[in-house]
Amino acid sequence: MTLSRFSIIVYLVWGTLVAAALISLFYGRWSLAFVSLATLALSVLPAVIARWYHIHIPWAFLAGTVLFIFGSLFLGEAFDFYERYWWWDVVLHTASAIGFGLVGFVFVFYLFQGDRYAAPAWAMAFIAFCFAVTIGVLWEIFEFSMDQIFGLNMQKSGLVDTMWDLIVDNFGASIGAFAGFLYLKGQERGGLTSIIDEFVRRNRGFFRRLDERIERHLEKRRK
To answer: pTM of the predicted model, to two decimals?
Structure first.
């Protein structure tokens, strides 16, 4: 089987985490070993869940998810990237919001079984946007709870950090939702829309009401 560049990225990250865990255990750096193994487990989890439920995740999306978890936990927490680089948190929040925007759109599209005419394209995109922003809000509530209950400092500068996170979440969610809007309009232009297109093609059984135009489009892509 020929490996794509995205699958290579996934395996490289997993290999790096395994190596980091083994080296940390050898030198007795227990906290780094724990973070390495926890990051590895969380990054493998989406692939495991997808296999359980017979869902085919595009390598590009899986690579993005793995890199996000790697950057957030391993680099962000173990190597203190959040403190070293002020933009690190902004990049991760934007990336996660885009990802949740895509997930939200696919979920809405799944609920309508692929019927693009069940609701206006803008309405589906708006629901996807709301889904992504809601996830961002829940995460901020989680950070606030951890700080209040356990005395942590997940919110960094408090209200300012929270508000910037929410602003960035809205920006990223807009990008992900807009990609879904373009897909419904038949304007696949690579990038994020290609991820949606690949997911739909590889999970055709979840989208049984695809209209004939999309069917013809998918058939051409298979040839």
So the answer is: 0.82
Whole-angstrom distance between the N-terminal and C-terminal Cα of the chain?
19
Angstrom distances, CA of residue 93 to CA of 6, 77, 114: 21, 15, 29
Distance of CA 74 to CAs 17, 97, 166, 198, Å? 8, 20, 23, 29
CA–CA dist 86, 173 (Å, integer): 21
Query: Looking at this protein, which amino acid is placed at residue 181?
Result: F
The backbone torsions φ and ψ at residue 23, rounded to the nearest 5 degrees and listed phi first, read -65, -40
Interval 115-164: pLDDT, tens: 777 788 899 999 999 999 999 999 889 888 878 887 767 677 778 888 99
Distance set, CA 160 to CA 68, 82, 138 (Å): 23, 15, 17
Please give the Cα distance from 18 to 122 (Å, whole number): 43
> Is the separation of the CB atoms in 164 and 88 below 8 Å?
no
* Cβ–Cβ < 8 Å for 105, 176: yes
pLDDT in tens, 100-120: 999 999 999 888 877 777 788
Angle in degrees, CA 14, 19, 21, rounded to 5 = 95
- Taking CA atoms, 23 is separated from 26, 40, 61, in Å, by 5, 15, 29
Instruction: Write the DSSP string, 59-120.
Output: HHHHHHHHHHHIIIIIIIIIS-HHHH-TTHHHHHHHHHHHHHHHHHHHHHHHHTTT-TTSS-
